[in-house]
Design goal:
It contains three helices and 31 strands. It has about 400 residues and is mainly β. The strands form two sheets. It has a 19-stranded parallel beta sheet that branches. The radius of gyration is 23 Å and the shape is elongated. It starts with a helix and ends in a 7-residue tail after the last helix.
Length: about 400
């Protein structure tokens, strides 16, 4: 055999020889009629300590997967190699629903789920590592709401993951405690990363770009758990100027396109050592419930605190942004700062029972615009009285050691 013929090899003969590897159809899907049934059976039969390996391939699934057993790891060959496609999904509310404690999932992808890509609900100790959740048709209102979606979870680690196209939040952690979200990429979602009604979170090393809003720290009314104590640091948050494609009437649909980091009705939030730039509304927004445009017809629970308090912005690198607010009502405020909104925009609502809301900015030349929302912007001004700092800084989040052990990155 000549050298040129030898180079043809197995890969060039797949169409002729069935023994070279798994068969692939014209759409690129691995031909395995029993894959879905076998995978769900493995999830049903799993025992604590089970590791379910999913080989490389692009697999078509028609219904949601579910896991209820504690102590299970689901592992693929890489988020670009093991792809679970739900483009043909006919039943189920999400790609995968997990209700087992001590769950780890890594090195695979969920594509085109009908609803949320991966939901983990009401458990302890969840690790989501190098998982991609993507809607491949681009950013559309008809896409699933959430990509990676742990809710009511104690101890959460989301790292090295990628989420694109979610019609609400790409990475969302809700009503949870003790959280690390690090080294992820969120792009083309309505909200890139959102920490909502959660306590004790570190969000760092992430890239949020091309979303309507980059990183959100929210407290919503009428949920059983209020949130506080979030640190947002060492992130790249730039050019989050995508049109807001959230479902009409949803809370996230009120996020103005062009928002970098938003704190809404949350307390004890630190925003530091980030690179935040070119977000056309503002690089940092601090707001109360009263500026959101959320549905107020139902009222709010008596215990709900609608005001942001004890917010510290320091040591960030700001540039660009503020020139084209996504919310038209903010456009007149540009005149207060010479034609653009400054880096920090605060709606100015404060709790009348408190002497000071603790909105503190120590960030070099960065300016803070107090929009005077209570008076419908009549007293909007650059607020020079925000030069303060909290008496103590928030501590780093520490997770159980077993959660942070990594078997190694896969492509």
């Amino acid at each position: 055999m000549t050298k040129g013929i030898a180079l043809v090899g197995c890969a060039a003969m797949l169409a002729l020889v069935s023994g070279c590897g798994p068969k692939v159809d014209q759409q690129g899907f691995t031909v395995d009629p029993d894959f879905e049934k076998n995978l769900q059976q493995k999830l049903l039969d799993a025992k604590p300590g089970s590791v379910i390996e999913i080989p490389a391939g692009k697999y078509a699934l028609s219904r949601s997967l579910s896991l209820t057993v504690d102590g299970v790891t689901v592992r693929g060959a890489g988020m670009g190699k093991t792809i679970l496609s739900f483009a043909k999904q006919s039943s189920g509310a999400e790609g995968m629903l997990v209700t087992g404690n001590d769950f780890t999932i890594e090195d695979l992808a969920f594509e085109d789920t009908k609803g949320d890509a991966l939901k983990v609900n009401g458990v302890k100790n969840t690790v989501i590592r190098r998982v991609r959740a993507e809607w491949t048709g681009g950013s559309k209102t008809s896409n699933g709401a959430y990509g990676l979606y742990p809710v009511q979870v104690t101890n959460v680690l989301i790292e090295g993951s990628v989420v694109k196209g979610a019609s609400d939040a790409g990475i969302y952690v809700g009503q949870s405690n003790n959280i690390i979200v690090r080294d992820n990429r969120a792009e083309g979602n309505v909200a890139g990363i959102e920490i909502e009604n959660s306590n004790n979170a570190d969000v760092y090393g992430n890239t949020a770009t091309g979303n309507a809003g980059g990183i959100l720290v929210f407290n919503m009314p009428n949920l059983p758990v209020p949130g506080s104590k979030t640190r947002v640091f060492k992130n790249q948050v730039f050019a989050n100027n995508h049109a807001n494609f959230g479902a009409k009437g949803s809370a996230v649909s009120s996020v103005p396109a062009g928002s970098g980091v938003i704190v809404n009705s949350n307390d004890q939030v630190e925003i530091f050592d980030n690179d935040i730039k070119d977000n056309k509304t503002a690089n940092v927004l601090i707001s109360s419930y009263y500026s959101t445009g959320f549905d107020t017809k139902k009222g709010i629970a008596a215990a709900y605190d609608p005001y942001p308090e004890n917010i510290y912005v320091t040591g960030n690198r700001f540039s660009g942004g503020g020139e084209d607010p996504g919310n038209p009502t903010l456009v007149p405020l540009k005149a207060v700062n010479g034609g653009r909104l400054p880096d920090i925009l605060w709606d100015g609502f404060t709790n009348p029972k408190l002497k000071d809301p603790g909105i503190c900015v120590q960030n070099g030349a960065a300016k803070t615009l107090n929009a005077d929302g209570p008076s419908k912007f009549a007293g909007a001004r650059i607020d020079t009285g925000r030069n303060c700092a909290p008496p103590t800084r928030l501590p780093a989040i520490v997770l159980p050691e077993a959660m942070t052990k990594d078997s190694g990155a896969k492509s």
